[in-house]
Amino acid sequence: MVRQRIQIKKIDNVTARQVTFSKRRRGLIKKAQELSTLCDAEIGLIVFSSTGKLFEYCSSRMTQIIQRHRLHVDSLDRVEQPSLQVQADQDSICATLTKELENKTRELSHINGKDLEELSLEELMRLERQIERGQSRLRRAKGERLRKEIIALKGKELQYMKENEWLKEKVGLNKKSFMFSLRLENPNMIKLMIYTDK
After folding, report:
1. What class does CATH assign to 13-82?
2. Average of pLDDT values for 25-41?
3. Is residue 60 scored above 80 in pLDDT?
4. Residues in Cβ contact with 136 at an 8 Å cutoff, skipping those fewer than 6 apart
5. Which spans in 112-186 are helix H?
6. Which Gene Ontology cellular-component terms appear in the entry (predicted)?
7. Please, which residues have CB within 8 angstroms of residue 11's CB and are 6 or more apart in sequence?
8. Is the pLDDT of residue 197 over 50?
């Protein structure tokens, strides 16, 4: 005969419920004893019936197991508490940074001339002064950059002028020696070269 699987729900019949409780309680205590014996585990089992009657099983002393359980729970709470504090701090920092980002975004849009209708006259005047200060700093930086570029270009110009003079001298020497050698070989060619140089 095959045992049918029972549905796990509250048993309505009080007598059947008491019988089931008694059988399952004994089975649970038996399993706890086996687990304690096989695995050398400390087990404390406390069961209250629906009528309020206490049943317990303990592999050693129940008070000792309960104290050990409390110490374990307390140490877990201490470990989790700082992490909760850290999480709260991180949430606070995140909220602060989000608000600061929103403010800076709004300020940037105001500087770009957007959403100005929400500003009061005093805020508009302060924004105008801020933009004027920014423009003067921008002009100074631009002027300094241009001055440095001009100095660098003048240095290059001087260097190129020196190189040009050196090349002219070199070309002039080469031309004179070339003309001198031509004069010795062919006088007609010298005249042609002089004319083409001019």
Report:
1. alpha beta
2. 92
3. yes
4. none
5. 121-185
6. nucleus
7. 17, 20
8. no
44's torsion region: left (phi>0), alpha (psi -120 to 50) or beta? Answer: beta
Counting beta carbons within 10 angstroms of the beta carbon of residue 127, is it exposed (0 to 12), middle (13 to 18) or buried (19 or more)? middle
Distance CA 43, CA 173 (A): 111
Q: Encode pLDDT of 85-110 as tens digits.
A: 667 778 888 888 888 898 888 888 87
Six token digits for residue 99: 């608000």
Query: Helices 62-111 and 121-185 sit at what angle, rounded to 10 degrees?
Result: 70
| CB-based contact 110:116 (threshold 8 Å) | yes
Q: What is the DSSP letter of 13?
A: S
Q: Which two tokens stand for residue 66?
A: 């309960």
Q: In the structure encoding, which two tokens stand for residue 160, read together?
A: 């190129």
**Average of per-residue pLDDT across 113-141:** 86
CA 157 to centroid of chain Cα atoms: 49
Smallest Cα–Cα separation from 125: which of 110, 105, 109? 110
- Structure token digits, residue 51: 């009528």
Percent of the chain with pLDDT over 70: 81
Q: H or E stretch including 54?
A: strand 54-58
Which pair of structure tokens corresponds to residue 139? Answer: 């002009």
Q: How far is CA 126 from the centre of its chain?
A: 34
Confidence (pTM):
0.38
Instruction: State CA 73 to chain mean position distance.
Output: 35
Which one has a higher pLDDT value, 184 or 69? Answer: 69
